[in-house]
């Protein structure tokens, strides 16, 4: 069976901080445009926290709702006082985030190397399809597998089991590719191979004693190692 590369989407293929420029514009009127990177970081962190908390509570909602509630929290925490129109606009920007610059060419190399690429995300299939389409990289993927299909969130082991079920794959043939350490640990715990895309050279990996099979700086470096 061909090797399957299951790519996390948010933060791995798609740059979640692609919203910073829009935040700068929205904050310029308050003379607080320098707050945009911090807003983006806290929004993303809270989005993930909310998905983790809902997973533990057994109170599943669509990942987009976690994103919207995280936006609301960050607005309150940083006292940016965005209007409802601002928030809806920012959610629209989040649905059109850009791919990382090297993503398309790297994906072409994986496909040329005979590997099967799938998108694997906490986001709904509709949201992920839309992101990949507008970023111009959907054509490289054989399928989209969403945690929404079983109403769970990564790193729940059931989500990785669902990936294998959908793809009819064996653990040894299946790689999780992610920039999120929690996702890498979740996949390794579930018996999959995993590569950590360490996009920030200062990013530490969680000291759990569960390490990635590979650590690379970006998708180009991964292609050098795998394709």
Strand order of the largest sheet: 3-2-1-4-5-6
| Helix count from the secondary structure assignment | 9
Q: Biggest β-sheet: count, sense, barrel? A: 6 strands, parallel
Low-confidence stretches: none
* Terminal Cα span: 16 Å
Radius of gyration based on Cα positions: 17 Å
Helix content: 40-55%
Total E-strand runs: 6
- The coarse silhouette is globular
pLDDT averaged over residues: 96
How much of the polypeptide forms β-strand, as a percent range?
A: 5-15%
Structural class: alpha/beta
Order of helices and strands: EHHHHHEHEHEHEEH
Descriptive terms for the model:
227 residues; alpha/beta; 6-stranded parallel beta sheet; 6 strands; globular
Give a written overview of the molecule.
This protein is of the alpha/beta class and 227 residues long. 47% of the residues lie in helices and 12% in strands. It has nine helices and six strands, in the order E-H-H-H-H-H-E-H-E-H-E-H-E-E-H. The chain has helices spanning 20-28, 36-57, 63-78, 84-94, 103-112, 125-135, 157-167, 181-189, 219-226, and strands at residues 4-7, 116-121, 143-146, 174-178, 193-197, 214-216. The chain has a six-stranded parallel β-sheet, sandwiched between helices. Helix 1 (20-28) packs across helix 2 (36-57), helix 2 crosses helix 3 and helix 5 (103-112) packs parallel to helix 9 (219-226). The longest helix is centred in the N-terminal third of the chain and has 22 residues, at 36-57. It is globular and about 55 Å long. The model has no long low-confidence stretch (mean pLDDT 96).
């Amino acid at each position: 069976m061909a090797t399957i590369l299951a790519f996390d989407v948010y933060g791995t293929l798609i740059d979640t901080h692609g919203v910073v420029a829009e935040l700068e514009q929205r904050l310029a009127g308050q003379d607080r445009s320098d707050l945009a990177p911090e807003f983006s970081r806290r929004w993303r962190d809270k989005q993930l926290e909310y998905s983790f908390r809902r997973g533990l509570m057994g109170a599943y909602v669509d990942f987009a709702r976690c994103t919207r509630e995280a936006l609301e929290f960050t607005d309150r925490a940083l006292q940016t006082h965005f209007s409802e129109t601002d928030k809806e606009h920012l959610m629209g920007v989040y649905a059109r985030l850009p791919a990382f610059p090297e993503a398309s060419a790297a994906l072409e190399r994986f496909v040329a190397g005979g590997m099967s690429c799938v998108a694997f995300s906490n986001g709904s299939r509709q949201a992920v399809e839309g992101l990949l389409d507008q970023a111009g990289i959907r054509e490289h993927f054989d399928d989209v597998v969403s945690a929404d299909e079983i109403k769970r969130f990564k790193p729940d082991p059931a989500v990785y089991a669902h990936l294998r079920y959908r793809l009819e794959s064996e653990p040894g043939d299946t790689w999780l590719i992610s920039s999120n350490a929690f996702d890498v640990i979740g996949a390794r715990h579930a018996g999959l191979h995993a590569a950590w895309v360490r996009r920030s050279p200062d990013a530490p990996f969680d000291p759990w004693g569960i390490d990635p099979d590979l650590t690379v700086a970006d998708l180009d470096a991964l292609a050098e190692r795998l394709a």
